[in-house]
Design goal:
By secondary structure, the chain is mainly alpha-helical. It contains nine helices and no strands. Helix 1 crosses helix 3 (34-45) and helix 4 (64-74) packs across helix 6 (95-104). The chain is elongated and about 70 Å long.
Length: 166
Amino acid sequence: MRYSEGFKASIVKKTQGGSGQSLYRIARGTEINKSTIKNRIAQYKNGRLGLDGNDSISPSERSPGEKLALLLESRTITEDVNGEWHRMHGLHSEHLPLWEQELASIVLTRNLEFSKWGTIFTDDQMAAAIIGRLAHHGHIVLFEGESYRMKHALIRQREEEKLPTS
């Protein structure tokens, strides 16, 4: 199992920070073998592991697209690998519900019909899952007629073509 550097650092911090938790209790709470935690502590003491964990992306720095992809992926995992999955992605159990609330109010506009979303996501199954979630919990509003943005983009393009180049 590979853990993010941030997760490794957080485990070592629990042992070094005077939290009052025994190594056994930390191992049991994180489902990580005691010998693995001891190895991480040794790496920290030898200077091979920093406690800042800066080389991995923090959950708050993830883009809405990454958050949505992780939320969708989290729905496919079973309870027995839930903790392992969270650690692998450097997440805590409270991140996913917060992201759900954050993403619930997103307004999504697309000029591309649903059948072509696979070209954006490069994976038809991922596109189908996203469309399914959006269509199930969202409202689809279709507008007929000429696109305002397209009209003005064409006007700008024509004006730029008319301008003399120096």
